[in-house]
Design goal:
156 residues, 5 helices, 35% strand
């Protein structure tokens, strides 16, 4: 595959599969590796399948409503494609134990894909979870938290 072919394949992950999850059968290897840390009890690498990705897209719709993901930058080199992206959605379903807040959230991240045999064979997923949790009201704003801690340390 050319670099452009690999980029076109990965673009389908963001632009086509969220609205038509059946495309997962076309863009993913039958079994592929997904590297992510969702929370401290997650395995850092899981084996995934097109069917598990279809379920993930259904979960995203249930949790984030009419969510969108935009590609901000895409770079291809060798068998890898890197994408810097932005996510936007409204929290309307349970998210890792947090009941719906109905708050809008926008956060960004980076995915790195390894392409083999014309399909996605591996994914690395990194995104700004702190900013997401702050927008949902779970954690305080960073500046507020630093000011509070500074006050505690200086007054102890």
């Amino acid at each position: 595959m050319t670099h452009q072919d690999s980029k076109n394949l990965v673009r389908r992950y963001y632009e086509d599969a969220p609205r038509d999850p059946a495309i997962c059968d076309e863009i993913f290897q039958p079994v592929f590796l997904f590297h992510t840390l969702q929370h401290t009890t997650s395995l850092p690498v899981i084996e995934s399948t097109p069917d598990s990705e279809k379920k993930a897209y259904a979960w995203l719709k249930e949790t984030w409503g009419d969510w969108t993901m935009s590609i901000d930058e895409m770079i291809a080199e060798g068998d890898r494609v890197m994408v810097r992206w932005t996510f936007h959605g409204t929290h309307q379903g349970e998210y890792y134990g947090l009941p719906p807040t109905h708050k809008e959230a926008t956060y960004s991240g980076i995915n790195i894909f390894r392409v083999a045999g014309g399909k996605i064979a591996e994914v690395w997923d990194i995104y700004d979870r702190l900013w997401l949790w702050q927008q949902l009201g779970v954690f305080p704003d960073t500046q507020e938290a630093i000011a509070r801690m500074r006050g505690e340390l200086l007054n102890s």
